[in-house]
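hey so i finally got around to running both of the ones u sent me last week. sorry it took forever, my laptop kept dying halfway thru and i had to restart like 3 times lol. anyway pasting them below in the order u listed, first the sequence line then the structure token line for each. didnt double check formatting much so if smth looks off just lmk and ill redo it

first one:
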Amino acid sequence: MTKQDLLERLAKYFPQWFCSSSRFPESESGSLVIERLLRMEWDPISCTHVNQLLHMMHELGMTEGFFSYYFSSSPSPSPASQSNGTAVRSLEQLCSGLQHFFTDALLHSGGVRIAYERLAKKSHSQILELFAAKRFDPQAMAARGAVLPFHAIPPDDRYLIAELACKAYSPLAAGAELLIESVLLKAYQDHGVTKTKIKDLFADESPLAKSDPQTQMMLQFTTEEFAEETISSKQEIRDKVQIVAKRFAEARRRAILNTRLYLSIVNELDVYVATSMRKRSDFRDMARDTGRIFTQPSLKHLRLRYFDPTISAAEGHEDKGLIECLMVKCARALIYFAGESDSFGKDAEVSMALSQGKPVIILCPTTDKGEQRMKFFRDIHPLSRMIQMETGIPVGAMITNNPMVAAKLLERIFTNSMEYDLVQTDDGYLRLKERLTQSVVRLQTSDTMIRQSFLHYYRRDP
């Protein structure tokens, strides 16, 4: 180990002391610190020496418990290893401990100095207890029994539980026509052509589209099954609508029952699945990808309780909003199936989960547009950088377009095996990136005034 090796490795964690432009290494205190660190390979550094070096640099010292927890050569330091004495014997061991601490600091405190001032005074057992409370218990999850079975809805019928379908296929009044039936019959009458395709009744140049674009959007979604078919009478319209209406009634009945089942396990909900489905194919794709993710062998043993929005409905849209807010609040993690365009409702659910500090995965489509959205979410979109409201800790989402990566992330989340890269960039920011997706999940700003404002005022009582 050379002096240059030492300075380059430590500059990642302490640029103010060890970067190439710092004058500290040439100062009297800096020379002493560096000289002592260079001897660690044949003269291991104890907690006492670490504290002496920190005190000469006007920094707070640490307990033997803190030193043992982060710098023991054992991957899982125990009270026994602490009593036998911990010492740092290599630059690799020192940097491994710093990496461990900096990761914990950004994950759970939002800043390195804040975390150090809180943890450096704690005993080994206190630190163990603190972090044990933050971990999931995969053994307890695996030991859970199965939930009551949900009512199956064919993937091709799942679009019928959407709010637009509910509006279209519900009767306007007792004994009255369905809304979609009434609208199509009037459009057919106004069209003035006996034989026509159903889609022509609400085409962009049709009177209906020009006078009522919202109704046009409803028809585009709810007539997809028979929009290409040709009709030549009002009765044919009624017949086609009634065939779908019967399936709608059964799908909606099952979806409402499923919502009751979801509410019965809301206290055990592990993953809330959010999505914006605008086409029938979106529901099919959602059913396919959800199945692929949650049936992975690496997840099946955890018996994950997850909310599938393609098989759930509520009596009214206001109730639906209340139910979904409750599920976001109760779930331990959220996965958002992002479409090719934004949706206020689902963006709001992602924001809610991030603001509660929950792990959030955003899964983008595997299309050119989806690739653009993935980069937008990961690198630009403010939605993927928020703060946990209770603590003020910056929180970021994990972005991918691969369902199998999403499954792997869920496995790592619930088995406490997440992997991170710590990145100190030229702009002075300290960023914690999730390793699989290289998404920023935590950060520490380089702006001193912002850091101090959060430190002094965020937790202040109103």
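and the second one:
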Amino acid sequence: MSELPPTDWFSDAMRQRTARRYRRDRIFRGVGLAGIVLALGMLAVLLVGIASSGYQGFRQTQIYLSVELDVSAFPGITAEDVANDTVDVEKIRKGPYGKLVRESLMAMFPDVSGRSNIRELNKLVSVGAKNQLRQMLMADSSLLGQRVELWVPSGADVDGLVKEGLQTDVPEADRRLSDQQVEWVRQLDERGLLQTVLSDDFISAGDSREPELAGIWGAVVGSALTLLVTLIVSMPLGVAAAIYLEEFAKKGRLSDWIEVNINNLAAVPSIVYGLLGLAIFLNFFEMPICTCGWRADIGHDDTADDNHCRSCCIGCCAALYPRCGNRTWCLQNAGDLPPHLTIGDARYSDRQYYWYGPCTG
């Protein structure tokens, strides 16, 4: 077998081959760098698009109201009670705040008449306006008998209209606000009775069926609690199991079966196992949907629209059951069921009652 001639690394042919290899390497690196730059550019475009479209979600449109808090509008409260600072908080809680808000709107548009027009006018203001007024008065009962000025959240449709620059290119039949409502909103804007501010409720509020009142606090706290519990439970068990399987367990069918299941757990999204566990705990073990206490103060004679609630451990409830937010009350036993509600009005479980109402705060 003949030997190959020694390679001349400094020959012209070798120099050309080396130059071609370096040139291809530079092209490859350039293509890779261009791909990274293109990916970062697309990511920047995506983030800018999300920010430009979603930043309005952090802003809230508010309407100015001047409300006359006439003492006579609150049954059971007298001027002497206000003067002596002996007003019953429960009587303040049951006040006709919806009526007071409507009267304030009517004072700004005195020409509006007819039930349908008044109803359309009332839709300009969010249902959270009366709750805001209630909270203000409960915090300072001395406001009774005075005229208070406050900014209240507008309805979701008004909020969207204002954020679009009060433009209505869509025909009236294809939008939620009528031409008359749009004209009222424009009048409010011209009179300086509209403003758009950063929304505190978006961060601090929980779930709500009213878009303008909904927030992420319940989801944030629920996610944090879920991660905390998961970390406390799974980390020690996971680390201990890994050490045992790797260092001490004998190889066999059982260890192989455990390894296969671990690989499946790593491959399948965790939400699938979460839903499976939720179904098992709720249906098989019959555990309560919401494990933390919610109480409802709804023992008054007003309509359901004026009901209100106090939250307790909102994050836990929101994490376990999305509807167990600002609109769900977990009454711990039958004795707590309000007298004007019956079992037919509630959804019954072995350990708790749930009654869904229009509570927004």
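quick thing i noticed on the 2nd:
Confidence is low (pLDDT under 50) at residues 290-361.
anyway thats it, ttyl
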